[in-house]
Specification:
The chain has 384 residues and is an alpha/beta fold. The protein has 2 domains: 13-144 and 317-358, Response regulator (Rossmann fold, 3-Layer(aba) Sandwich), CATH 3.40.50.2300; 152-314, Response regulator (Rossmann fold, 3-Layer(aba) Sandwich), CATH 3.40.50.2300. It is 40% helix and 13% strand. It has 15 helices and 12 strands. Strands 2-1-3-4-5-11 form a 6-stranded parallel β-sheet, sandwiched between helices. A 4-stranded parallel β-sheet has the order 7-6-8-9, sandwiched between helices. Helix 8 links the parallel strand 6 (185-189) and strand 7. Helix 4 crosses helix 13 (317-332), helix 5 runs parallel beside helix 6 (118-126) and helix 7 (152-166) crosses helix 8 (197-215). The longest helix has 19 residues, at 197-215. It starts with 15 loop residues before the first helix and ends with a helix. Bound molecules: beta-D-galactopyranose. The site of beta-D-galactopyranose (GAL) has 12 residues, from loops. Residues 59, 61, 135-136, 192, 196, 198, 236, 266, 294-295, 315 line the site of beta-D-galactopyranose. Keywords: Signal, Sugar transport, Transport.
Length: 384
């Protein structure tokens, strides 16, 4: 596996609202917030077939993504083949192969392992089918045309800023708070799956924010595990994170010291970490650590409300779907899709033109403004 260690970026995204047009607003919230739905090619139009490959239904965010992409494409008259591969790489390859065989006009792909699609995407290229990488960069192939995602380095910074905010060290935009406590605070780090390009961007962004405070001794990583290879979580699995957190608590924190903060790059990982803490005698309140997250999954929004998790990063799946759909439609109309970054996402073969969206830190106080007012979750879903 080739690992991409490149740093992220600081792109201006002032064209964002131009691209994320009415389509995003038209997406029904039912599509966003309902549970698993059937996949397949029902309910489409006659503009042709578009294949949409998603990694897994085990995470609610990908269900929301799949539903949003499907409904937006159908609104535009396309038929959609939406498939989930349950994090099984050969299954995803064969699903994409099937889409090509069925005559898909374009493919929108959120990969499981971004390095494993080279051969199937050669088949797509041979059949002149354009490919859009959805949220996760597809690596090691020239046959990926565009990339729709978020500013992933910034997402990582935001995860760190949320941790620093919880410790009273910084504002949510990363600005240091004057007269902040000197610490030291014990911090442990978690990263995502090494086969997902995003994991590097998130981790590098977070470490960019943490490093000066580690250097000053305000933050202490007691385990000394600060390399992404040491802290990665295969397939972003909560159980794996839980097991590693249990090991850390046993090895580093059985001497009476407590862990004050934990960098988690994804809500499912945060939930595993929370289970480990609860199993080791920690309870919410004094001495409970600050924990970050990502994706604003409903169980984690509830956990933020109850104080188990400090924050998450909200990435609006409706907007991401809208960007990817606009890219596909532009390509099929012979137009050039709008992009706002042509530098940062080198996939090992080429730099993939990208459109990067903005993300928002969510903490308890702004749940209503960010998640309820935008219609992403209802009050009843959060409090239910
Ligand atoms: C990443 C994605 C994150 C999170 C994670 C686990 O690729 O950018 O938002 O969803 O996968 O699913």
């Amino acid at each position: 596996m080739t690992i991409n260690r490149m740093k992220g970026n600081t792109v201006k995204k002032n064209v964002f609202f131009a691209v994320v047009a009415a389509g995003a607003l038209a997406v029904s919230m039912a599509a966003c917030s309902s549970g698993a739905t059937s996949t397949g090619t029902d309910g489409g139009g006659d503009k042709g077939l578009i294949g949409v490959a998603m990694p897994t239904k085990s995470s609610e965010r990908w269900i929301a993504d799949g539903n949003a992409v499907k409904s937006q494409l159908e609104e535009q008259g396309f038929t959609v083949d939406l498939q989930y591969a349950e994090d099984d790489i050969p299954m995803q390859v064969s699903q994409i192969e099937n889409m090509i065989t069925k005559g898909a006009e374009a493919l929108i792909v959120a990969s499981i392992d971004g390095t494993t699609l080279t051969s199937v995407l050669q088949d797509a290229a041979d059949a002149d089918i354009p490919v859009i990488a959805y949220d996760r960069l597809i690596r090691d192939t020239e046959n990926v045309d565009y990339y729709a995602s978020f500013d992933n380095f910034k997402v990582g910074q935001q995860q760190a800023w949320s941790v620093l905010n919880g410790l009273g060290l910084a504002e949510l935009d990363g600005t240091p708070i004057e007269g902040a406590p000197a610490g030291p605070f014990n911090l442990e780090l978690f990263a995502g799956s090494l086969d997902d390009n995003n994991a590097f961007f998130f981790f590098n962004g977070a470490m960019d924010a943490f490093q000066p405070l580690i250097d000053d001794g305000v933050l202490v990583v007691k385990s000394n595990q600060t390399d992404i290879e040491q802290v990665a979580t295969l397939r972003w699995a909560g159980e794996e994170a839980q097991a590693r957190m249990e090991d850390l608590l046993t090895a580093q924190y059985s001497d009476g010291t407590v862990v004050n903060a934990i960098l988690s790059p994804y809500d499912g990982i945060s939930r595993g970490i929370i289970s480990a803490l609860e199993g080791s005698g920690y309870s919410v309140g004094d001495g409970w650590p600050i924990i970050s997250g990502q994706d604003a999954e409903i169980d984690s929004v509830k956990a933020i409300n109850s104080g188990e998790q400090y924050g998450t990063i909200f990435k609006d799946t409706r907007e991401l779907a809208s960007v990817a759909v606009n890219m596909a439609v532009a390509l099929l109309n012979g137009e050039t899709p709008e992009t706002n970054n042509s530098e940062d996402y080198d996939n090992g073969v080429k730099t993939v033109p990208s459109f990067l969206l903005d993300s928002t830190i969510v903490v308890k106080d702004n749940i209503p403004a960010v998640l309820i007012d935008s219609g992403y979750w209802t009050e009843a879903e959060i409090n239910g």
